Amino acid sequence: MTNQQELELYQIKMLFNQPAAAAFPEWLQPRQTKAVQHFHQSLPQYQPTPLLTLPRLAAEGGVQAVLIKNEAERFGLNAFKALGSSWAIARLLAERLGLNPETVCLADLTQPEIQSRLAAEKITFCTATDGNHGRGVAWTASLLNCPCHIYLPAGAEPERVQAIAQLGAEVITTELSYDDTAALAREQANTHGWLLVQDTTLPGYTEIPKLIIQGYSTMATEIMAQLQQQELPTPTHIFLQAGVGSMAGGMLAFLAQAMAQSAQPHPKFIILEPKQVNCCYLAAQSGNPAASVPGVQQTIMAGLNCGTPCSVVMPLLQAQADCFMACPDFVAAHGMRLANSTQAAPFISGESGAVALGAIDLLLQRPEMAQARQILNINTNSVMLGINTEGAMAPSVWQKIVKEGACPLP
Ligand SMILES: Cc1ncc(COP(=O)(O)O)c(C=O)c1O
After folding, report:
1. Which partner for 281 in 65, 324, 327, 395 could form a disulfide, CB atoms 3.0-4.6 Å apart?
2. Is the pLDDT reported for residue 7 higher than 70?
């Protein structure tokens, strides 16, 4: 990466970059999103999640608008993640069972003949997860009446574990890091003949993560439609959380292309990670897409506690993101409290979801961040877009932070 600049402002580490001209691989092209949306629309509880406007924050921050896509309302599952796993599973099964992958819908997969084949072939799913992805896999498996096995890393919140078990999955908690848990899930899948549905790449395992990333495109499709329907201004700065970077890479690709297609200016993309586990930041900084943070790390942002970037999107993030922000936990906690308190219509934001709102607000408001605002060209015309990727997945943690003020701003 050329022309990098690194700063530490208000304890937030920032890496600024001059992005290359946008270029995207075939599997991230907009034409891939049609079949994805068709499938998602066939699922129970499908509804576009709301695109919220936060006028008070925008006024306080001196920008034109602050927009938040609220994925806490997705499918009644409290997070965006099931978009990816449900699509990947549908595509996999369509190919395996001879259904049309361009038009596959839930009714195809639940018809009696297909159900008998799933049972006869003992189709079983398996994955490792920080919580949300596993819940999505377990939910999809339950819609298809298939068993599944979900592996969680060390420190998994009991409430996250329970939410997955309630969907009928077998849940195995480990004392391993996320990366090691993913390796274990893969080993178990190989041993037992289960289908591994992992939301990140592993050596020699890239096709299913690509399908999962395509599944996230429904968020971008909805955002583009909502901007028009709600007559909102075009986002100039888009904030995307990264664990392994799958969601961020996919959303960057789909949003950048959708905006180009509708002749809107190319926005700046800002990638957010926990400070302790900033593998995408380190990969961008070093130019090594496989840079990783080893061992078990502590952060309240459980969904972002991943040590190694997803190999099929990291080169894209490295080339095309404008900024990487490595955020202390207080940024997420601040976002959680803001979501709950300062808006006309409060919403629930969990630790990994809230870092977008927290980062937007601190970037706009803190005097210490003035240099960052200048580099990112934030001004009164700017329109900030973030995604609240989860609600309160661990209600007791949410309670401590939002109601009791844990993890305050410095
Ligand atoms: C709530 C939430 N937000 C963001 C992410 C980041 O997604 P990715 O791992 O694709 O970077 C996750 C991942 O599990 C998550 O659970």
Report:
1. 324
2. yes
Closest ligand 1 atom to residue 247 Cα is 10
Do residues 17 and 322 touch, judged by C-beta distance below 8 A? yes
Ligand 1 binding pocket, CB closer than 6 Å: 79, 81, 130, 132-133, 199, 241-248, 303-304, 306, 352-353, 389-390
Q: What phi and psi, each to the nearest 5 degrees, are found at residue 145?
A: 60, 35
Q: Could you give the CA distance from residue 164 to residue 133 in angstroms, rounded to a whole number?
A: 10
Q: Which amino acid is located at 88 in the chain? A: A
Looking at domain 5-79+216-403, which CATH architecture does it have?
3-Layer(aba) Sandwich (3.40)
Ligand 1 centre to CA of 273 (Å) is: 10
Q: Answer whether CATH 3.50.50.60 is correct for domain 82-212.
A: no
- The mean-pLDDT minimum among 106-120, 170-184, 331-345, 372-386 falls in 331-345
Secondary structure class of 355 (helix, strand, coil): helix
Give the active site residues: 81, 130
Residue found under tokens 């068993």: 147
